[in-house]
Every structure is written in C-alpha cells, then in structure tokens.
Amino acid sequence: MERKKKLSQSEIDGVQYRRVPTWCIAIAEMQGGAAMAFYSLVGLMSYVASEGYGIALAVAGVILTATRWFDGLIDPFLAVWIDKLHTRFGKLRILMLLGLTIRSIAMLMLFVWFSGRTDNVVLFIVLYMVNIVGNSIFDIAGNMLPAVMTNDPRQRPTVQVWATIYNYIFPTVLAIVSVMIILPMFGNQYTREMLSLTCIINVTVAWVLTLIACIGLTPVDKPQNFMGITAGGDDVSLKDMGKFLAHNRPFQMYVIAAVSDKLAQQVNSQTIVSTLLFGILIGNIQFGTLLSTFSMLPSIVFAIFGARYCGKHGSREATVTWTWVCTIVAVISVVFCAAIDMRSISTNIVLTVVFFVLLLLMNGAKMCVTTANGSMRADIVDFELDRSGKYIPGIVTATYNFIDQLVSSLGVTIATLCVAAIGYVNTVPQPTDAATPAIKFMALFLYFGMPLLGWICTLIAMRFYKLTKQELVGVQKRIAEKKAAVLAEKQK
C-alpha cells in the first residue's frame, strides 16, 4: 500500500512561505545580545551621571527621560530613510554596523574617556544623545528581522525565541561579570573605575555578537526582500507613518500591550531597584545574579515551549494565556515577600527555594509573552502590506519605537523619583544601606507592582486585537495573490 505523502504547511494553507535555515536565525538574532549589552550599560547610567559627572540622582532621571524623547523624535525620520534605502548589499548589515559604531564611541566617551569631569551636565547630555542616535539605527534594523527573515507565522516565533534566549543569556552573563567579579574588586561600590571596566567589556561583547549576526543575515539581506506589491509601494514618506498609525488597528492594540509592559520592565530593571531588593532587603547584592544564573536553563526551556505554543495557537492567544500566568505569580510573590523577613531569603533554604520558584515561573511566563510579542510585530508588517501595498518594516518599527520611547523613557524617571521619595535625593542606594519599611514597600512596588499594571493593560488590549492564527493565513494568501497579479501585469 502506497504511503500517503505528508503535506507541507505551505500546501495545507495554500501559501508559498519563505523560510530560512534555523542556523541563520540562531546567529542572526545575536544582534539582540549586542543590544542587551548596551541595555545593561543604560541600566548603570544613573550611577555614571552621579559618580562620573556629579549629577544628582533626581536630576539624572529627568535628563535621561528628556533625552529619550529625542530618540522618539528622530525615529520617524530614520525610519523613512531606512525604508527608502536600497543597496545591492541589502540594508540590515549596513545599518547595524553603522548604529553599533556610533553607539560604541558614545558609550566609551561617557563611561571611560570623559568620566570624571564633574558638574558637566551639558557634556553628559550631548554624549547620551549621540548614543541614542546609534541605538535608534541599530534597533530599527534589528527589529525588522522577524518580518524579513520569514513570512511563515509558525516560524516567526522561532525567530523571536532565539532573540529572547540571547536577551536573557547575555545580560545574565554580563551581570555575573559585573556584579560578582568586577563590583567586589572595587569594594562593592559603583565607582568610576568599576563603571569604566564594565563598559569596555560590554562594548567588546557587542561587537563580537554583531559581526556574527551579519553572517546569519547574509541569505536574507537582499534587495528583493524589501519591496512592496503595488505601484509606488517603495515610495514612503512621513505621511505613511500617520496613515499607518491611524488605520492599523492591530498595531494600536499591540502598542498598548507592549509599551505598558516595556515601561514596567524599564522600571524594575534599573540597577537602583535591584540594589533595593537584593542588596538592602535581602542583604546580598550577588544573590539576584545567582538566582538569574540558576534560572537561565529553565528560562530557555520556557522560551522554546512558548515558541511552540505560539506557533500552534497564534501570537494573540499565547500573549493572553501567559500574561495571566505572569499576573497570578506576581500577586503571589508580593504577598510572600510582604509576609516574611526578606533577609531570611538568602539564609533559609525553604524560603530561598520558594522565592526562586516564584521568580522562575514569572520570568518564564514573561519569556513566553515576549516571544509572542515579537511575532506580533512581524505579523503587523504583513497586515499593513496587505492593507496598503507598502512593505514598511522600518516605519512599523519606528512608529512603535516613537511611542515606546515617549512612554517607556519614563521608566528611569519613575524609578529615580520613587527612590528619591524614600530619601535618596542626592545619593544613590548602596548595598550596605540599612533596610527600612519604606525601602521594602518601594522595592516591592517597583519590582512587582509596576509589571502588574502593565499586564492588566495587555489583557485589556488583547480583547481588541483581531489578528488570530486563522486571519494571518488569509493575510498571506491575499499578499501572494497581489504579488502574482503584479508579476503578471509586468509580463504583459
């Protein structure tokens, strides 16, 4: 009896999907690790402002917020330029290397070459703005990857899972180096010398990862993968950004969900917040890094499982399911920490295990949400291609970044102002400070409470997000039909 041939997903859906080898995805997404190396440095910016330039903590928070608005303002212009840019070598690799060069020079100036010039607020602001320009170019290019590398909604979670893994591994490894090796070398104090050495290491890592990523991008970084499907589809302007924002409902809901989560992430990822929680309350600044290290492998397993779940059920369903898990675990964590003496967490094995399990579950669920969110943005690019005929991954990314920067930039300000409200006005928290009820309340609010607010916003937004798994198959069918019609017209 002849064995029935197993149909491919393209044959099942009636769509010719463009897929890439897994190894290309795996190394191309290392650019995300490079971005996280710089993200880790941004988390230290409050300390750089204070120790390197003599700027008060509250003032530093306002400066960092205001300069990030500059990021949002330049993103639209960069996006139009990026979507218009066409070379025979593609565009992603060129943009990444350009952005990386600008950002590396700015960070080395901030942390190493000019650090120590106290009371020089202007210099700090200028250098940070230069860093923002490089960051915008690099991030827009990097965020285009899921849309460019594959049009298969089932493979896109795979692209994102590699990004999520690297976004977790590299900051963790760099944190181990920074907090457990470099920081003790300087007496557990965030000195200028400690910050300079951390910067040099992170910039070096970013360059190595980006160069590797460029190899993985070679098969897809080609001119034909950046073309529209209608006459004038490649002619983009700032007007397209306004039209896109006004008429693309899935994007509107995505922004509400993603930006609210990002704001919370910006808050609880600040070094001053981890210093409050792990350094002062738990009494062991290295403890948080150890927990992150031990949870690395389980979190990767979560990311892989999340990608499979997303591929099977769709990005929307995956986001809703795992956001609910995040919410429930965060509530339990707050109750747990409020009910005990947190110093016991690092000394009592039972409490250590409970705390570790709670953080593991929350971080694992967050990784599943992140995986789904990355796929969503690529799906929105295709939805817009179907709707308007324009292939504008740069504008989609930049429009999101524009809104994201305006909102999530408040993360530094929220963290610094909240910490200032409990007494740290002209100084920064140090691991050797004494614990107080005010510090405990603020640490729990910033570390767990802010994410809770973000997840509630996500659940509300997803009720109005209509790009289900089934709808996305229809989007790809319509795109294929329009491309075939354009090709047939050209052949006449």
Structure description:
With 492 residues, the chain is an all-alpha fold. The protein has a single domain, classed as MFS general substrate transporter like domains (Growth Hormone, Chain: A, Up-down Bundle). The protein is 77% helix and 0% strand. The chain has 21 helices and no strands. The protein has helices at 9-13, 22-28, 30-42, 45-53, 57-84, 92-113, 121-143, 145-149, 156-185, 192-217, 238-247, 249-268, 271-281, 285-294, 296-313, 315-339, 349-388, 393-408, 410-421, 437-462, 469-491. α5 runs parallel beside α7. The longest helix has 40 residues, at 349-388.
- Summed over residues and divided by their number, the pLDDT gives a mean of 80
Derived from helix and strand composition plus strand pairing, the structural class reads mainly alpha
- Identify the CATH homologous superfamily: MFS general substrate transporter like domains
Low-confidence stretches: none
**Straight-line distance between termini:** 46 Å
Strand content of the residues, in percent? under 5%
**Radius of gyration from CA coordinates:** 23 Å
CATH class categorisation: Mainly Alpha
Task: List the SSEs and their pairings.
Elements: H1 9-13, H2 22-28, H3 30-42, H4 45-53, H5 57-84, H6 92-113, H7 121-143, H8 145-149, H9 156-185, H10 192-217, H11 238-247, H12 249-268, H13 271-281, H14 285-294, H15 296-313, H16 315-339, H17 349-388, H18 393-408, H19 410-421, H20 437-462, H21 469-491
Question: Which characteristics define this entry?
Answer:
492 residues, mainly alpha, Growth Hormone, Chain: A, 21 helices, globular
